[in-house]
Design a protein that fits this description.
Shape: globular
Radius of gyration: 21 Å
Strand order of the largest sheet: 1-2
Bound molecules: acetyl coenzyme *A
Structural class: mainly alpha
Amino acid sequence: RISDEERLFDELIANEQRIEPRDWMPEAYRKTLIRQISQHAHSEIIGMQPEGNWITRAPSLKRKAILMAKVQDEAGHGLYLYSAAQTLGITRDEMMQQLIDGRAKYSSIFNYPTPTWADMGAIGWLVDGAAICNQVPLCRASYGPYGRAMVRVCKEESFHQRQGFEILLTLMQGTEEQRRMAQDAVDRWYWPSLAMFGPPDDRSPNSAQSMAWKIKRFSNDELRQRFVGMLVPQAEILGVTLPDPELRFDEASGRYEMGEIDWDEFFEVLRGNGPCNTERLERRRTAHEDGAWVREAAAEYARRQASASAL
Ligand code: ACO
């Protein structure tokens, strides 16, 4: 027999209303949200590293200022998301510990290196483009604090995507060497950005339940299709080639046919064996340890302020 609380929860979901932190929710719903939101927060924080690599080497003052603003935005996204996850009863310390112990997942995409300036363009265009496709529907996620955090995140992601596109456009209008550099970056980021959407639907254990709860609104493969549909005309404007000889639009099904994503590589990255997993975690761990005195000082300051105001 289903309880009154559960009936109310089901009704709220069915009527497209929001679940808020103090509402009753099934334990599995809470767990799923903590899993997805904390993984998402970790991705934003780890995602600062591949681009942080280029702040000191950006080709002009203007490019440096833009890149710095973008990386700061990612820190902000991580903080909203950790706050949203905290409303579900997990502490930020617990989440941070899971990340630096290597127990938490974060997006596969941030385990690839950024050897050239063109990578800043390809990340903005492809990685942030994929992030937008995935996250715009999350603005309607059934859990209120997550959906609301996504609204601002998506606005900022859309600026990030355009700045990446503009970096590539500038390079593509440059010298032969610059065009080669832009194409090389697109070649390296294209497939990993398709894999960001997660495993194919028939290998995605969480999708069905997350869609029933209206956390996810579209399946991994549906979003991948949308993303490719967005890229094709943009690639034409840029003059870059998407590195998939099998890519074509099938009029009959109304879908893009594409080559096979290397899922073995994807799962290896998830197991911690991607090109930069060790380096990314090590840097995060060191930054956390180096920041310990700041956290202690802030906590002590807050304690003294609280006891002063209690007098
Ligand atoms: N990188 C790392 N892990 C992944 C990825 C990926 N690209 N895609 C799927 N996985 C993991 C899932 O987290 C899940 O692992 P878990 O069960 O141990 O938690 C497993 O692979 C199976 O995948 P799914 O059943 O498809 O999982 P889910 O329904 O959670 O869908 C998805 C995965 C699409 C990433 C979803 O969690 C999501 O939309 N998250 C929010 C967006 C996000 O995190 N974006 C981060 C990158 S964007 C950015 O930061 C700029």
